[in-house]
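Handout, section B. The chain below has 282 residues.
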Amino acid sequence: MATNSLILSNNEIRNLKTIIKENGLNNQNITSEYELLRVKDKNINLILYKTGKLVFNDTSETLNMLNSSLKLETGYDYFLGSDETGKGEWYGPLVVVATALKPEEIIKLRLMGVKDSKVIKPTKIIEIARQILETKIPYNSLILNPPTYNKLYIDFKKEGKNLNDLMAWAHSRVIGELLNRIEFNQAKVVIDRFDREKTEKRFKKLEDPRIKFIQKDRGESEIPVAAASILAKYLFKREVQKLDETYKINLKNSSPEGINPEILSDVAKEHFKNVKNYLRSD
């Protein structure tokens, strides 16, 4: 039977313990010093660790119980988050994604396994990304394939700006377009912080008394940001596969020196040192 995991807050742990007690579920003996409790009763199977990590089976009984335990943040119609991928790879596009979730959708995605993508196996990221897409939640993406990315990077540099300026522009664009597509009275937007000043400057254009903007370190602890990150990685992989098929190469397992210089600008980010050096030597 499939299992999943999520991190519970202290309040959610208390809620879970109360529900377990009220339902008279069978507590089993813990098997290690790291466990807080174990439950195996009626199709419900879960292990709670002292770190707050909960591992559970995905039966309807377990999911219904957890749905009652998880804390629902109120006060907003939508929670938005954005994240990017491809910034650190010399090849492929820069992909920036924003998602918009209703409060109940945040819980749904948590139970689906949405969390910080850095702790999710690559194959699992693809699986979860497809599940997210099946939910039909509003999202927006900006895919800057190498030729477009390279031109934008040069244009920003001519204006005395750098990659963080480009990133701030991209994040504000995907979030601004997504905000225009949804109806809301109050919305909360969380961005994984990378450059507070440049991001604030870009987001001034989106200022609205109905919108609360937050830049947060470790932004993927917020489910809308985590969902955006998972979708961004999924789209990045898809775009790289398209480049591989078009040019009959394997970018992930290649170096710039192994790519035909005539197509390098079509598949690589030119400002990366290893790419730049190869282009100069050609």
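Note. The mean pLDDT is 93. Compare this with the example in section A.
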